[in-house]
């Protein structure tokens, strides 16, 4: 009896450690600025020694890293790689890659592909066109109100949900960034009408992007409406891409999204359908 009680106690302690470890990964994934040891210990409601042991183990396994100067902890690429491996195993990326490659060849610019994961856009793949390369950090979070993919995502949501998401977050990143809810909602209404979202130097000076949602086809047999499952965008510097180019890019991203949505695997469509989560994070370009 004593042995069983001891084993039961050890199992309970192990499960608590697992939960705390997963909580650390989740809180760091949601933190753009990283977190200190003290912050993490406080959020876990444990002393610093316990938090430090968890952090050191995750750091050793490359799931997170510590900034040299600030000593803050950040989630590492390995966490993102786990999701990419799941997508690859489900053949989603392999199926999408030739379609995105063709789009990059047709436009000559940077093509970015995002999926909805727990209701939020996540960058998963890029294809570079034949023209001069444009450098984009695929793990830098970007404000949804200032980016093409972000606005395309917001356009798929009700206005009241959009208001909750952007509340207090309409920061002016450039002189062209929309900074009022009224102006943003007016843009979203136009995006819903046209199916295209444009960011013209709103996120970064000299850079423009156009994006559109990827919708699965409606299932008449099961009376299921179409769902937004991802986004495809083209990004280019305005020094070489003219307004006429972006008019052409709009047709290209629409055609690409239609092809991806038509062939989207149904189990993944369920997995990446929008949820009730309200706070965006991850790459939005």
From TrEMBL:
Taxonomic classification: Bacteria, Pseudomonadati, Pseudomonadota, Alphaproteobacteria, Acetobacterales
Domain named IclR-ED: residues: 78-266
Residue intervals of the HTH iclR-type domain: 15-77
Keywords assigned by UniProt, alphabetized: DNA-binding
InterPro entries (alphabetical): HTH_MetabolicPath_Reg (IPR050707), Tscrpt_reg_IclR_C (IPR014757), Tscrpt_reg_IclR_N (IPR005471)
Protein name in UniProt: IclR family transcriptional regulator
Keyword DNA-binding on entry: yes
Pfam families attached to this UniProt entry: HTH_IclR, IclR_C
Domain of life: Bacteria
């Amino acid at each position: 009896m004593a042995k069983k009680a001891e084993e039961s106690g050890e199992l309970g302690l192990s499960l608590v450690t697992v939960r705390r470890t997963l909580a650390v990964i989740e809180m760091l994934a949601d933190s753009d600025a990283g977190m200190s040891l003290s912050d993490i210990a406080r959020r876990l409601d444990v002393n610093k020694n316990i938090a430090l042991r968890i952090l050191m183990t995750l750091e050793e396994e490359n799931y997170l890293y510590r900034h040299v100067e600030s000593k803050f902890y950040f989630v590492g690429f390995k966490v993102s790689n786990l999701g990419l491996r799941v997508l690859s195993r489900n053949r989603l990326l392999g199926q999408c890659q030739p379609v995105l490659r063709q789009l990059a060849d047709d436009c000559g610019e940077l093509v970015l592909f995002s999926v909805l994961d727990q209701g939020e856009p996540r960058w998963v793949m890029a294809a570079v066109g034949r023209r001069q390369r444009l450098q984009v950090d695929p793990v830098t979070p970007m404000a949804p109100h200032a980016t093409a993919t972000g606005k395309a995502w917001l356009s798929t949501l009700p206005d009241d949900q959009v208001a909750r998401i952007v509340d207090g977050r309409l920061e002016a990143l450039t002189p062209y960034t929309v900074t009022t809810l009224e102006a943003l909602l007016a843009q979203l209404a136009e995006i819903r009408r046209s199916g295209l979202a444009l960011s013209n130097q709103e996120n970064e000076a000299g850079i423009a992007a156009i994006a559109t949602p990827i919708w699965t086809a409606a299932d008449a047999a099961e009376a299921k409406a179409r769902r937004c499952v991802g986004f495809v965008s083209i990004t280019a510097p305005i020094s070489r891409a003219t307004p006429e180019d972006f008019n052409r890019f709009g047709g290209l991203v629409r055609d690409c999204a239609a092809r991806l949505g038509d062939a989207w695997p149904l189990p993944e469509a369920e997995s990446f359908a929008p949820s009730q989560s309200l706070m965006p994070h991850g790459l939005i370009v």
